[in-house]
Specification:
By secondary structure, the chain is mostly helical. It is built from 15 helices and no strands. Helix 1 (about 5-20) runs antiparallel to helix 3.
């Protein structure tokens, strides 16, 4: 099956996401209590991003809505998206998000996954015809960009897990913001760190995939990070070394969709996200190869199989519904 983003699919993704970005409960806060005064509701802690079960999912829900508004400005949910942004992406509410980050206990809040998605959202808003939403979010984006600048020089090792702490994912998403804002110094920092962490990797066995709660492939997101940050003439030999058996569809574990056996379990539901994020990476990586390269067909076929496995299940249960559409959109647009 050939998977493409159509206006109808975009409308479905938007409808799903509008249904949860302002749904405050259930909620899983990532919040440190320094005293009894810190026992506050999600909406009090986070005036903008209080929905979608957790802060980071709410952020990338807003990214999805911004992306679809750009792609389909006359879509059936365009008015609802604009109204949401008019209510939420305003200076006083963004100031509340910035105030939360000023607390010493919030130094590592959502590092690096939430940092990266917030910058990805900022980059997308900057492309919309209406500038006030981007302008309102700018102070928050500036804080997270600075956190990358402060953190990366002192971070000695990468984090290679298939969950929120994966550093390759953080670098890859932050690269879009750095490039979009013309921040050459931040782009160079991201590239240097990617090369320091991953530049010597070769013959990746992917033996640990899939883990039981992975939503990222540690192998493929590393490759996608390097594709995004390295010049093409340097990425190509790196990729040849890193996954040398792709034409033979090996490591086989990468080419086999994961099975989500209980979508009401939040961790097991991550496996649908793994299928979608693998599809995103496979499709993006395949685009770097000549049409007659056998690796291209192998990766395109794998992407299709992974999409077939999980696209029908985006809204089966709220444990997946509150976030999966964002990764589906990444995959369909890759």
């Amino acid at each position: 099956m050939r998977h493409v983003l159509s206006p109808e699919i975009g409308a479905r993704f938007a409808a799903i996401t509008l249904g949860h970005v302002t749904r405050e409960y259930p909620n899983k806060p990532d919040h440190v209590l320094a005293g009894p005064e810190d026992a506050r509701t999600p909406a009090d802690l986070h005036p903008v991003f209080y929905g979608s079960y957790d802060w980071h999912s709410c952020v990338h829900g807003y990214w999805l809505l911004a992306r679809l508004l750009r792609r389909f400005p006359d879509g059936p949910q365009a008015g609802a998206i604009q109204a949401l942004f008019d209510r939420q992406l305003v200076p006083e509410k963004v100031a509340g998000e910035c105030d939360y980050l000023a607390a010493p206990a919030a130094r590592g809040f959502k590092r690096p996954y939430g940092w990266a998605w917030l910058l990805k959202l900022a980059d997308e808003l900057a492309h919309l015809r209406e500038p006030r939403w981007s302008q309102a979010l700018s102070p928050l984006a500036g804080i997270f960009a600075q956190r990358f600048r402060d953190f990366l020089p002192v971070a000695p090792y990468p984090v290679r897990v298939g969950t929120h702490f994966n550093t390759a994912f953080g670098l890859r998403m932050a690269a879009d913001y750095a490039e979009g804002t013309g921040d050459a110094a931040l782009t160079a920092l991201l590239r240097r760190k990617a090369e320091a962490w991953y530049g010597d990797d070769a013959d990746c066995p992917a033996w640990g995939e899939p883990g039981g709660d992975d939503f990222l492939s540690s192998a493929l997101i590393e490759a996608e990070c390097m594709r995004r940050l390295l010049p093409a003439d340097r990425f190509s030999p790196w990729f040849d070394r890193f996954l040398p058996q792709v034409a033979r569809r090996e490591p086989a574990t990468l080419f086999t969709p994961a099975r989500a056996t209980d979508r009401s379990d939040g961790k097991i539901a991550h496996l649908d996200g793994l299928n979608l994020s693998r599809a995103w990476c496979f499709r993006a990586l395949a685009e770097t190869l000549p049409a007659d390269d056998p690796r291209r067909a192998a990766m395109q076929d794998a992407a299709a199989a992974h999409l077939d496995a999980s696209l029908p299940h985006l809204a089966d249960d709220y444990m997946g519904e509150h976030w999966l559409s964002s990764f589906a959109l990444l995959a369909l647009e890759a």
